[in-house]
Specification:
With 218 residues, the protein is mainly α. The protein is built from 7 helices and no strands. The longest helix has 37 residues.
């Protein structure tokens, strides 16, 4: 998502987060509940199926649930505090991406072959869940960095689910685990790129608020 798609709001914070707080808060609660439930489903399936892509997606669901919780906590606060929360979420996404790279490498070295049918079925359920959340959040995708980070996480989840399903087809057709490992690497790249977008946007907002605070009075 480019800067043109998510322009920083004014220093007074009169953006969509404040104008539609009751609606947005209910949507975040629904997204939190969906993501936390899917975390439980996918981590159990990932362990049972020995799939790195499902495990990655399960932790992604948990991270998103935590992100929605942080967003609910800072909703209505000053723009400066919301930008700081976005920096924290960006750092978390970066850590997630690096962890997935490590797990993917470990599975690749051990030659793990996951259970393709389980990957496909759970990947489809996860895709439906994330599409529902994305539909709820779509109208709020161009708010401040905090709102943008929530949308970026959800968008990445949909892409990741599609990749998991493609990996399941690849594992089923070839009988080897490399399609699963490739998806793990893709999900790590998405997390790292999303983290960069969020941090860049948040830093721009912090500079904007600092300039406003230190600007000489007319």
């Amino acid at each position: 998502m480019s800067a043109a798609c998510c322009p920083p709001p004014g220093p007074n914070g009169n953006d969509r987060a404040s104008a539609n707080a009751p609606i947005y808060r209910r949507i975040l609660w629904a997204a939190l509940a969906i993501n936390f439930a899917m975390f439980g489903v996918e981590i159990a399936a990932g362990i049972g199926a020995r799939s790195v892509s499902l495990l990655a997606d399960s932790l992604d669901f948990l991270g998103d649930a935590a992100n929605y919780g942080v967003s609910l906590f800072v909703l209505g606060m000053a723009l400066q505090w919301r930008a700081r929360a976005s920096l924290l979420k960006g750092a978390t996404m970066a850590a997630f991406g690096l962890w997935i790279l490590f797990v993917t490498a470990r599975h690749a070295l051990s030659g793990t072959v996951p259970d393709a049918p389980v990957m496909g079925v759970v990947g489809m359920v996860a895709l439906l869940a994330n599409c529902a959340v994305a539909a709820l959040l779509y109208r709020f995708r161009e708010g401040d960095s905090n709102m943008a980070s929530v949308w970026i996480c959800t968008r990445n989840d949909v892409i990741g689910n599609l990749a998991v399903m493609l990996a399941a087809l690849g594992v089923f057709g070839t009988g080897i685990g490399w399609p699963d490992f490739a998806v793990g690497a893709i999900m790590a790249a998405l997390a790292l790129y999303g983290a960069w977008q969020i941090v860049r946007h948040a830093m721009a907002e912090l500079r904007q608020t600092a300039t406003h605070v230190h600007a000489p009075a007319e």
